[in-house]
Backbone:
């Protein structure tokens, strides 16, 4: 055990998880690579949990941060803040929400917490609909709507949460149905649920479930839900903390795969927009955002430094068509991984979209989750020079792959080869 690991254990909570039997100290990065304290280089296929969205040490972002820090680091939302207004204008336009207002936070957890405050206040209800297998953060309210037991340390909550079918396509009571029938069954379940409850404030849903193992419903499910929700006056919150900014390749926002009946009432974002800086936020139409009847500020949300980073990062993403790159390179990578998975007795499914890919592992010849294999592949990939993540609602048995969106084809091929070797080691 390293000296730093000893020191970490002495001052950190037991529940603060570390990857790997020999935890890794990452000292610096460049592009799609990072280096550890021993000088070893790794290809990064997890990007600080989908946060290093464009590239490590992106010159445009580091320059913007340095220049802004040299002027002023902090002022709070009590003063006019040019970088915050400029980024809010761009996010409002990109969101697709009409007459949008934007509030910046420091994390996705805080963004979802704010969205719940807005929805419950606007609707005068503390009842919330959430998806099974979901994850929305670690605050008291966000844990209360998280439908993933591994990330829900308490059943106490300020909210009454009811869980809806549909976030997991290939497991559960409707897995045997075709896509159209699956949607129809989930809508019928929602209709039935609403017939037994008081009027909920909102449905909150990740278009692709992140911690849940990159699982998702068929396109159009949330559009079908929206028709039902609208009849009951229930808001739709789209949690885009992991799916936003073009990561899925086909769409800029995950909700756009379900956009037949318009954009969500509230959209939350974080992670990738800051490329490692602490940025989260909420977008909502004005009547929803303005429903609070008490003062509120954000001490650190909208910081001039983080806003400068977000502006530079978003400009780079759009100017270099990283959404298109995620679609092209991600499409090649997922097909390569599916070919590898077809030859592995442990792989149940390779799923995802763009550069958001999950590999679900099971015990050979069964549908039983295999968390031991997932842990072993994580270790083997690290030994091979590749960093990946893991998750999933079935005992953390899904490998999570989410590289920076500037990933090149040779890097995708290199990562796939390392993964192939890692999977062979557990077959």
Residues:
């Amino acid at each position: 055990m390293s000296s730093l690991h000893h020191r970490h254990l002495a001052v950190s909570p037991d529940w603060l998880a570390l990857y790997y039997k020999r935890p890794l100290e990452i000292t610096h990065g460049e592009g799609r690579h990072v280096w550890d304290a021993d000088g070893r280089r790794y290809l990064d296929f997890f990007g600080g949990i989908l946060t290093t969205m464009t590239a490590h040490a992106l010159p445009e972002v580091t320059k913007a941060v340095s220049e802004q820090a040299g002027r002023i680091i902090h002022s709070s939302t009590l003063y006019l803040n040019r970088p915050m207004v400029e980024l809010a204008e761009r996010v409002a336009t990109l969101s697709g929400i009409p007459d949008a207002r934007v509030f910046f936070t420091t994390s996705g957890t805080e963004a979802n917490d704010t969205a719940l405050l807005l929805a419950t206040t606007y609707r005068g209800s503390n009842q919330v609909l959430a998806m099974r297998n979901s994850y929305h953060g670690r605050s008291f309210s966000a844990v209360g709507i998280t439908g993933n037991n591994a990330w829900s340390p308490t059943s106490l909550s300020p909210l009454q949460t009811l869980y809806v079918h549909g976030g997991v396509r290939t497991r559960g009571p409707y897995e045997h149905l075709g896509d159209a029938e699956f949607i129809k069954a989930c809508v019928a379940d929602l209709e039935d649920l609403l017939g037994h409850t008081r009027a909920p404030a909102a449905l909150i849903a990740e278009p692709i479930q992140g911690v849940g193992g990159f699982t998702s419903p068929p396109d159009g499910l949330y559009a079908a839900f929206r028709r039902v929700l609208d009849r009951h006056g229930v808001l739709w919150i789209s949690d885009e903390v992991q799916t936003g900014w073009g990561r899925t390749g086909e769409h800029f926002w995950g909700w756009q795969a379900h956009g037949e009946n318009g954009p969500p009432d509230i959209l939350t974002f974080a992670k990738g927009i800051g490329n490692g800086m602490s940025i989260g936020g909420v977008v909502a139409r004005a009547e929803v955002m303005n429903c609070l009847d008490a003062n509120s500020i954000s001490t650190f949300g909208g910081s001039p430094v983080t806003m400068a980073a977000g502006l530079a990062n978003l400009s780079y993403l759009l100017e270099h068509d990283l959404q298109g790159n995620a679609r092209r390179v991600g499409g090649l990578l997922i097909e390569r991984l599916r070919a590898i998975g077809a030859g592995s007795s442990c792989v149940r499914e390779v799923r995802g979209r763009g550069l958001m890919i999950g590999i679900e592992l099971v015990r050979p010849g069964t549908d039983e989750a295999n968390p031991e294999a997932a842990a072993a592949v994580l270790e083997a990939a690290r030994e091979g020079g590749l960093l990946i993540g893991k998750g999933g609602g079935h005992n953390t048995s899904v490998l999570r792959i989410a590289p920076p969106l500037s990933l090149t084809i040779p890097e995708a091929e290199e990562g796939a080869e390392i993964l192939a070797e890692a999977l062979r080691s557990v077959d």
